[in-house]
Model the fold of this input.
Amino acid sequence: MRPTPPRRRVGAALGAARLLEAAGPLHAPSGAHARAAGLCVLALGVFVAGAASAQSSRPAGPRPSGAPSEKAAKGEEEKAPRWFAVHAGWAHTVTQGVLREVTILARDGAIAAIGSDLDLPEGTEVLDARRYHVYPGLVAFDSAGIVGTSPEDSTDVYGLNLSLALSAGITTVGAGGTVCKLTYGTLEGHVLGRSNLVRLDLSSSASRKRVREALEGARAYLRRLRAAERAKARGEKAQAPKAPRGKGASYLALLRGERRAFLRASTQRELRFAAELALRYGFSAVVDGAVEGWTVAPLLGRAGFAAVLSPRARRRPDERSNRPSGWSIENAARLHAAGVPLALLPRSRGIGTGGLAGRDLFTLALEAAFAVRGGLPEEAALEAITLGPARMLGVADQIGSLEVGKDCDLVVVPRDLLHYESLPEWTVVNGRVAYDKERDTLLRAVRSRALNGENLDLPPLWPRPPGSSTQEGPAGE
Amino acid sequence: MGWGTDPRVALVAFAVCAAAGARAQEDDGLLVIKAGTVITVSGEELRPGVVVVRDGRIEAVGAKIEVPPRARRVEAPRGVLMPAWIVPRSRLGLAPYTRTGNAAHRSAADEWFPRPDALRRLRAAGVGAVALVPAGSGVPGSAAVFRPRGGAREDMLLPGAGYLRISFAALPGDKRTLRAAFRAAEQAIEREEKARKAFEAKRAKEKDKTGDKGKGDAKGRKGSEKKEPGGAKGKKDPAGKGTKGSEGKKGSEGKAAAKGKKAEARFVPPPIPPNLRPFVELLRSSKHAPRLVVEIARARDLVHFDDGFASRKLRPCFFFRGGEESDLFHAVPALGARGATVLLAPRISYEPYTRTRRNLAAELDRAGARVGFVPLDDTAEGFAKHLFAVGQLVREGLPREVALRGVTLVPARVLGLDEELGSLAKGRRADLLLLDGDPFAPGAHVRAVFCDGEQVWPEEKRQ
Amino acid sequence: MRTRIACSGALLTVLAAPAVAGEAVVLRVGKVLTMNPRDEVIDDAVVVVRKGRIAAVGRRGEVREPEGARVHERPDAWLLPGFVDCHNHTAGSLRNLNDGVWLTNPGLRTVDTLVPESEDLRDALAGGVTSVLLIPGSGNNMSGFGTVVRTAGRTAAAMVRRAPGSLKVAQAGNPERYWFGVGRRYMNWNLEQTLRKARAYHERWCRWEEAVAVQGRDAAGPPPEKDLLWEDFRPLFRREIPVSVHTQIYQVVLETLRMLHDRFRLRVVLDHSTFDAYKLAPLVVERGVATIVGPRQYYFDRSERRIVGIAARYRAAGVRELGLNTDAPVVPQEELTLQAAIGCRLGLDGYTALRALTIVPARALGIDGQVGSVEVGKEADLAVWTGDPIDPREHCLLTFSRGELVYDAAHGRRF
Done:
């Protein structure tokens, strides 16, 4: 039994239709913004030093950590702020729709303002992407071989895999327990944070028993604690129970909702077990795998689970079962509909040069496209490779969307990101161009910017019936 | 600039001269070498030039010098005289023993067992000094410098020369080792400061007491002092281990003796583990701080080194351990900007995954770094090809003067021997190399090598 | 049944009528990519199917729609010919991928290992793939004869479009693992040896057949002895079927062109043609040989640190007969369009990529008379898509095999 897909509007023209669809949300949420900004002609190049808040959607403020404070100014020499700006044709903010013709200004690597007639401070490094689409840098919830085993002490900031990931538009990866920015050539801001997830091993009956017992122990402690508190409130003499330490403390944090669990579960049985455990003890979890998640989507939603999944992870249906089983291309869509936040990943979490493309992080954006194939709305698919994983990694306050105050991590593409021809032209990390397709040798021969997007000098083969305009460039208005 | 059409003729002439000198009544300590070209390295190139050596040191270098009559003479009108070149990093003749972690107190000298035939080969190659490094990761110890002059092992070693070798290529381990070493050294310093403060406070207190009671409390003071170091350090046996401690003792002994009974009132710092001592000295920027050579294999290593230790203001020398494919070109601008000294093998490398050639030595020089060369092949045979290999880089765009400094003066400076070796100037040791052509020219041969003014190759047959 | 097919030995073309032969089908779609020689694209189009074949294609209103036909109205959808995968291992059991008896195994046939009810084949239909060449693996130098199958067939007879479909040869790479490892020199010698024997057999029969034709049956004498080992090679030497050559690298493409194309004058299809083989594109163009790229879609050039889109490179060098394959199960059979997407991501243009899934592989296999484009008279192997099939966001709505609806995403979506 396969689910029927939620209907999705289908385009009738190659490319152009896609483009319109991508630009579609423009008319609704960002229209207001565009009006507010008056669709000003970008008066760029003119600057007023320091003023960078003209039309920002949120007031530009100094970054809490990065900006030099007054104290510092008194004490030691104040370092001049580093300004970076992108003129974006389309800014896909993830949280606030698509903004047309805006400038994103960053100070010391953090977005200071987004607006359409910003005054750029002197010395601002400007990236002109007026013909391009700008997205927040992609976030891979998990990765292998891109950053070092102990990132702050061993990442190869000039490594091939790091460049490959940047060329795929990825700016942040989870790796082991660490969340890392792909800071090319520098370690400044490389480690963004540590994962706060508590790993639960539910792989064997013995380990499941251990987990259950540990949870039971933590719950018992909480009960004793409450009892003691109540007793105290009544004025009785009561001794507070001894707080658990080590692993026990982690489980306690789970039950108190201070931390989230991370567990692997793919089959319906595993997922059911995990969800019921979570519901019984009242913790929330990020579940990795979730191949049969669509069969128990409402349960996972109820349990407050978030899912890390690969839309094409295959699993044959169990023919002995009378319930739906096996993989489904609609997995992501069904989970999303049930309110399960998503992080999408390809089946392989590495990145390499073996030549078998379409299965590792080199095509992370296409993975999101496959989720759209299964009915996931494009906005949700985009979120599932940006803000979604950022939330699960606990760094959503810094990355994952284009917002003032967040890090200036961008990927600049010639057309909508999920289109198969959309190779990143620039990838920006912490307000620095970390990858430039035209300068890096990796992909510069493919649809060269210098050749105005020409395809290796290929003559156009696409037949053009009279009256059709399917070949219109992505940036054509 | 060659030796002539037939180098044998010249060689014969040179041998005859030497022999003639031997026959005459000569001043044993005096040697005069006249050569068609004298490469001083530190000064101008002289054509022709004369070098006067007295008692193993250079007395004078010039285009025209009045030659003392009884001097032993070597005349090579078409020869090229230069300082013997220096190998700033080698494992030749060392036991294959590797260390991990922080072993900063160890020295390669302890594991060096020279083989006479290898020494002979080194002399034949014109090598003036070799820095032997301990193997391993982290901080495996200090390099020991020897001059291959023959004789006893201890006579060849140059105490005080060399550097502390820091491996910074096996990440994350090496970074952690170094970080831990500095942290521990900081703690040692803090401990010492604390102990000193406590001691001074106590002494001030006791001074007041002595003012009141006079001598009576000498015993009590003794007792308290015994406690002092033990209480502050909370570590192992303080006796003997910290050399610094004993030095301090010596320094204060005079004063203490003068003060008679107060001799016991001197401060005894808590001992510092010997492998932390170099780091303590580095943190104190003392004159005992070791020279550092940090070995990096990839560009990322420099980034990680700077990330961890730029704030320590160490200004180390770097050694590029890169292979044929190397991404160290990424590190060139940063190293150039700080005017760092970089040791590397004389080879053309390729950018990783490409056949794009890089002359890293030339790039470093252009960027503002100082370049020194380490033989590509760490064998006595390999050393014989070193000057030719460096010459290849000259033919690929490295300025000749830079190449010359890179085989002599720069390595000498890295070893702390630039006042002794690496150039031809007054007062320097007379470690000389006489060639029959430009040192970098293909086909140039070493004709004679002098160590402390003694001809060590070809071996003289003197009565 | 299988044994009968296997023993028949001769070139077998199954033309069993489809189950609903009588019913006419009308498909009203937003766009038809005909993939015909004029590269026609028809917007707002109608395709009429009768008796399993395409009866008419044209703009709506310009085509007469038969009365009582079953109508599929999909005004936003695109209609394309069913895709052809030239290099596929999933129509049979994977356990039978390689019969590594000898280094060359001339007599073996994949038609013996068909699995008509395979789930993989249903998945292929969900990816719009209606024809595949089922070939043995590349574990040995010559692994036998492949079979051109319909992915929709539910019986062996309905599946087989042509058997033998092609000869499978692997000239380097995987066969080097054979026994203690054999090198390319030996493989080439061995292959040539085998082909010479096969040709000698073929020529013996040709001489006898000619004698029969000229002198009559009696005068021609007794026929040569039939030998199953060599029988399938006869259509190969008559150039009725191609030889599919597993060619991963430069040197192998070169040797394939020289030996199989130039010396033996076989119809060569270069499969894979990956890594640095694209550098031989001029020789491929010269000979008009079809090259079917995949499953690797790019090559990491270690002399320039760059990613080379292989298909784009062949195309730029002027290779017209450029196809794409999945080498399923290396890439799942339903992801044939992903191969196109990656090709396009790395420089290929969309239309060439679509040709590479349809008419080019059909022509390479010699089945372009029946499938590979939407033209009147051809079998109605069609797929209706939500939009551009290359775009992973779009999916296949309906798949038809000989006019029969064999996959409907609305009832049991698979991909």
